[in-house]
Amino acid sequence: xxxxxxxxxxxxxxxxxxxxxxxxxxxxxxxxxxxxxxxxxxxxxxxxxxxxxxxxxxxxxxxxxxxxxxxxxxxxxxxxxxxxxxxxxxxxxxxxxxxxxxxxxxxxxxxxxxxxxxxxxxxxxxxxxxxxxxxxxxxxxxxxxxxxxxxxxxxxxxxxxxxxxxxxxxxxxxxxxxxxxxxxxxxxxxxxxxxxxxxxxxxxxxxxxxxxxxxxxxxxxxxxxxxxxxxxxxxxxxxxxxxxx
Length: 245
Ligand SMILES: Nc1ncnc2c1ncn2[C@@H]1O[C@H](COP(=O)(O)OP(=O)(O)OP(=O)(O)O)[C@@H](O)[C@H]1O
Ligand SMILES: [Mg+2]
Prior knowledge:
Blueprint lengths: L2 E11 L2 E12 L3 E5 L6 H8 L7 E6 L4 E4 L11 H11 L4 H14 L16 H13 L5 E5 L7 H16 L4 E5 L3 H7 L2 E6 L4 E7 L9 H12 L2 H6 L6
Parallel strand pairs: 3-7, 3-8, 5-6, 6-7
Antiparallel strand pairs: 1-2, 1-4, 8-9
Helix pairs in contact: 2-3, 2-4, 6-7
């Protein structure tokens, strides 16, 4: 079984320690999310796991065959239109042009982009549209492991729900393993098997919340109830410096 295993990982930018002694596992078929205050080191952790930053101390073992990442900012290629931005990764895999375009178009339309958006360039897209293009680009190659850094933050609640449902169907079919960052606790509860709570200065894991109920069976009632529970958790209150009202 493939897995991402992080052991005693520490990391500094210059003299500033960003992550301290992080250990956790993401097993094949699981969805694991990280929540924590802004600036706490979540993106840094994700980039280390994805191999985009060089490891300093500790171990990272990643045995997934393929992976892709959708960044916090969409990072689209400004000289390529929507369709070409999405199909870019397929080109690198040697998929023929016709099939590339067909797969990119299919996923774009699933994500509620219009036919007329496919020929637009990034500067002509709204923030939420760019985010959907970025997410589509990450998914179109059908990666075994998907890294997501706040993939739905710029979307309205309807679209957000649609893309979450899309992810949920992939999870249900056991087609993907996901490691993602979110600021949305409800989103984390809806999608995750495990939530890692990362406290800052330096970033360390204070608690891991686990959810056994299959994602497809988590209705709104369940999500609201679990959200209320988590929001009254002592470690969450301390980490986010929430005040109880
Ligand atoms: N390339 C870099 N060079 C130096 N410092 C950096 C670099 N990238 C991030 N940092 C610092 O590392 C710390 C953690 O940043 P990171 O982006 O990992 O936080 P985050 O938890 O993802 O925050 P947010 O929720 O706001 O996205 C911050 O203090 C940031 O200034
Ligand atoms: Mg970040």
